[in-house]
């Protein structure tokens, strides 16, 4: 049956997914993309499984209704708490030919290539840490790796409110970094397992022992998407290719536009939507 083409949907609770979309659009500029930030309900990181699942499903359905055949959850918290249920339970009922991908699996597939000591630190939201998704997924690909997790519940609010560059933020960056590094002496790879955290990269790097590798997900997810599209020509052929990007937010478009460039690297214009 003929399926119309549509943009690739990219979803995050707020602005963080823009750090992933930036890399996708750089690597795969031929495709069209729709970004949806659920800023009105961010942060997701401290919310319950049921709430994150319900909000994420609503956003995925909106992206499907907007014509996206493929949606990437560019949010670790949503990938950890909602992706599997959506893939296994909802998709077969609401859109059996569409696909939803997350950011955890592509990251865990490659994380073992960076570590020499076999000790990997994971910085993430409380929801992602409590889900244990990273230790579980890393064990599938690299069973010899020990994973040390640190929840950083105050980082997303600091970043969403553009307070992360102020000296006051240093205290909370150091507090969580100290807790992570105290868990094992020879962590040599640290994963920014929240798509907001690349904005703290410089501050975090200053606190890492020399020789530690700090990994952000954007490029990894973009490479993985390119690979997925190559392996799935039936989905690739359903992705429209005019190189256009549109941005949507559930909160004020004006606010979104004034904050978004620090995540996306350049100015953009968004549109407000109401989810019903
Ligand atoms: N950026 C998201 C993540 O990767 C979630 C941040 C939040 O809403 O708490 O986990």
Provide a descriptive summary of the structure in words.
The protein is α/β, with parallel strands linked by helices and 276 residues long. The model has no long low-confidence stretch (mean pLDDT 96). Helix content is 45%, strand content 16%. The strands form two sheets. The protein has a six-stranded parallel sheet with strand order 4-3-1-2-9-10, sandwiched between helices. It has helices at residues 18-27, 49-65, 76-81, 83-94, 104-110, 126-131, 133-141, 155-160, 167-181, 201-207, 218-231, 233-236, 253-264; strands at 8-12, 33-37, 70-73, 99-101, 119-124, 146-151, 189-192, 213-215, 245-249, 270-272. It has 13 helices and ten strands. Helix 2 (49-65) packs across helix 4 and helix 5 (104-110) packs across helix 7 (133-141). The chain has two domains: 8-102 and 219-272, Rossmann fold; 105-216, Rossmann fold. The structure holds D-glutamic acid.
**Inertia-based shape:** globular
CATH class of the largest domain: Alpha Beta
- Share of helix among residues? 40-55%
Bound molecules: D-glutamic acid
Supply Rg. Answer: 18 Å
Poorly predicted runs of 5 or more residues: none
Output the helix-strand order.
EHEHEHHEHEHHEHHEHEHHEHE
Summarize the structure.
The protein is α/β, with parallel strands linked by helices and 276 residues long.
What's the SSE blueprint?
Blueprint: E1 8-12, H1 18-27, E2 33-37, H2 49-65, E3 70-73, H3 76-81, H4 83-94, E4 99-101, H5 104-110, E5 119-124, H6 126-131, H7 133-141, E6 146-151, H8 155-160, H9 167-181, E7 189-192, H10 201-207, E8 213-215, H11 218-231, H12 233-236, E9 245-249, H13 253-264, E10 270-272
Helix pairs in contact: 1-11, 2-4, 5-7
D-glutamic acid is lined by residues 12-14, 16, 42-45, 75-77, 125, 128, 156, 194-196.
């Amino acid at each position: 049956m003929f399926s119309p083409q549509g943009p690739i949907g990219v979803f995050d609770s707020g602005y963080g997914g823009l750090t992933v979309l930036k890399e996708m659009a750089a690597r795969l500029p031929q495709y069209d993309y729709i970004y949806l930030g659920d800023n009105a309900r961010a942060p997701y990181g401290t919310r319950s499984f049921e709430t994150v699942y319900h909000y994420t499903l609503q956003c995925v359905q909106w992206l499907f209704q907007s014509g996206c055949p493929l949606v990437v959850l560019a949010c670790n918290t949503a990938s950890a708490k909602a992706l599997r249920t959506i893939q296994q339970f909802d998709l077969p009922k609401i859109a059996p030919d569409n696909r939803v991908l997350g950011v955890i699996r592509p990251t865990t597939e490659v994380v073992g290539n960076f570590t020499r000591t076999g000790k990997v630190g994971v910085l993430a939201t409380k929801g992602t840490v409590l889900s244990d998704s990273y230790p579980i997924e890393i064990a599938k690909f690299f069973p010899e790796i020990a994973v040390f997790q640190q929840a950083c519940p105050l980082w997303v609010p600091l970043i969403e409110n553009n307070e992360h560059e102020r000296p006051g933020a240093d205290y909370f960056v150091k507090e969580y970094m100290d807790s992570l590094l105290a868990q094992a002496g020879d962590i040599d790879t640290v994963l920014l397992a929240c798509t907001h955290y690349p904005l703290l990269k410089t501050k975090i790097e200053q606190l890492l022992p020399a020789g530690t590798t700090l990994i952000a997900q954007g490029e990894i997810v973009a490479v993985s998407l390119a690979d997925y599209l190559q392996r799935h020509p039936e989905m690739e052929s359903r992705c429209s290719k005019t190189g256009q990007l549109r941005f949507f937010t559930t909160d004020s478009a004006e606010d979104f536009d004034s904050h978004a460039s620090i995540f996306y690297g350049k100015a953009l214009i968004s549109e407000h939507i109401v989810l019903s």
